[in-house]
């Protein structure tokens, strides 16, 4: 064998192997990026926390709460220690693998919540400042657990479920100084929200702080879930098949007759209506909306009455100046789509003269 041919073949084989390796690496990176996107989460936690906490306040204390703003950030332990304001309520949360988190309410928000639980409504004037107590924590801990439960439900199929699931109220912290000893020195994800209570009567801040390392449950994707790039064409095809199979009623109009209203009101049984413009060669096909969708020619096929289409709706409505004939497409149509295929339908037999028995013919138009 020629050494040059052997060299070329070897080079081609190497190129093929290199191409396969590159394609495999590209697919591996795409799959890895998709898996990371599924676990990293996105704006789902912010949206779910809005809904979950507002639903909890509505169900437990009938208190309307609106989120003025909410944002997500990553903080170190040192940065976290600067968050709690003076006289804030600090609830310690415990989660999977002994992970610890915090739910912090500002003094204004705490006072509004306690008033709603004790008095039944939230006043417009803030009470005198005071330190939060264990009684405050005991009253608001069920609210925190219910809000966290709603948060998990909303994120059942979201990547943020990994770091938000499994946390519940554990204890009450009187001040922020011991947090540096109680919490792990890891990165934390923080949901910072500003809330409007009772339609603007009070405004306060709230912080949900949880370890950024995902230790909770992984999202359970639906069995029928598929990428949007696949679902959109599939949905469009399914919708098209349903629409194409929908029944469509078309009426064949032999002729139209215009009459004064007085004559229409005088119509009676056995009355004969002359149709001077009736033509078997030009039957109009109208839809339910009254628009003309085509034209046809009346004839017979295998002993039955038949209607052969001669023009489409747009062509049928064209004027004679358009050069449109009744038995074929226009020159513009032929130029755009080419000449039509031979009509597989056999030629219609000429329609025999119709001798109607007008005495037995119903004038209702249903026969």
Distance between the termini: 86 Å
Strand order, largest beta sheet:
1-5-6-3-2-4
Tell me the fraction of residues in β-strands, as a range: 15-25%
Q: Into how many domains do the coordinates divide?
A: 2
Low-confidence stretches: 3-8, 18-22, 33-42, 316-327, 354-367
Rg:
39 Å
In percent, how helical is the residue content?
25-40%
CATH superfamily of the largest domain, by name, is: CheC-like
Distinctive features:
20% strand; four-stranded antiparallel beta sheet; Surface presentation of antigens (SPOA); alpha+beta; Chemotaxis protein chec; 11 helices; disordered C terminus; disordered N terminus; 367 residues
Describe the structure.
The chain has 367 residues and is of the alpha+beta class. It folds into 2 domains: 40-211, CheC-like (Chemotaxis protein chec, 3-Layer(aba) Sandwich); 248-337, Roll (Surface presentation of antigens (SPOA)). The protein is built from 11 helices and 10 strands. The strands form 2 sheets. The protein has a 6-stranded antiparallel beta sheet. Mean pLDDT is 76; it is low at 3-8, 18-22, 33-42, 316-327 and 354-367.
Task: Provide a compact summary of the structure.
The chain is of the alpha+beta class and 367 residues long. The protein has helices spanning 3-40, 44-61, 77-80, 107-118, 134-154, 161-164, 179-182, 228-244, 261-265, 313-316, 331-337; strands at residues 65-75, 89-94, 100-105, 168-173, 188-197, 202-211, 251-253, 283-286, 292-301, 304-312.
């Amino acid at each position: 064998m020629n050494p040059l041919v052997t060299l070329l073949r070897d080079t081609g084989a190497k190129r093929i192997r290199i191409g396969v390796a590159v394609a495999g690496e590209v697919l591996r990176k795409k799959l890895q990026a998709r898996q990371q996107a599924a676990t990293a989460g996105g704006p789902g936690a912010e949206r779910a926390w809005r809904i979950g906490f507002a639903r909890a306040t509505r169900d437990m204390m009938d208190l309307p709460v609106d989120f003025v703003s909410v944002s997500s950030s990553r903080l170190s332990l040192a940065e976290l220690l600067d968050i709690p304001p003076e006289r804030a309520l600090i609830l310690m949360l415990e989660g999977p693998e002994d992970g610890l988190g915090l739910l912090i309410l500002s003094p204004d928000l705490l006072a509004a919540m306690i008033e709603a639980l004790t008095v039944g409504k939230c006043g417009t004037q803030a009470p005198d400042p005071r330190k939060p107590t264990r009684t405050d924590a005991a009253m608001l801990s069920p609210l925190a657990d219910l809000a966290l439960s709603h948060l998990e439900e909303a994120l059942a199929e979201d990547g943020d479920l990994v770091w938000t699931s499994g946390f519940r109220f554990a204890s009450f912290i009187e001040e922020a100084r011991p947090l540096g000893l109680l919490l792990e020195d890891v990165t934390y994800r923080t949901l910072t929200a500003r809330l409007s209570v009772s339609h603007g009567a009070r405004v306060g801040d709230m912080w949900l702080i949880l370890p950024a390392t995902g230790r909770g449950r992984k999202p359970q994707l639906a069995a029928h879930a598929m990428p949007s790039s696949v679902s959109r064409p599939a949905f469009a095809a399914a919708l098209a098949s349903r629409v194409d199979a929908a029944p469509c009623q078309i009426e064949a109009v032999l002729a139209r007759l215009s009459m004064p209203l007085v004559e229409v009101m005088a119509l009676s049984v056995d009355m004969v209506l002359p149709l001077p413009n009736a033509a078997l060669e030009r039957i109009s096909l109208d839809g339910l909306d009254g628009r003309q969708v085509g034209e046809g020619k009346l004839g017979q096929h295998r002993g039955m009455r038949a209607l052969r289409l001669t023009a489409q709706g747009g062509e049928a409505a064209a004027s004679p100046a358009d050069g449109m004939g009744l038995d074929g497409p226009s020159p513009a149509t032929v130029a755009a789509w080419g000449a039509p295929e031979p009509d597989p339908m056999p030629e219609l037999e000429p329609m025999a003269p119709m001798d109607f028995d007008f005495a037995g013919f119903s004038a209702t138009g249903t026969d």
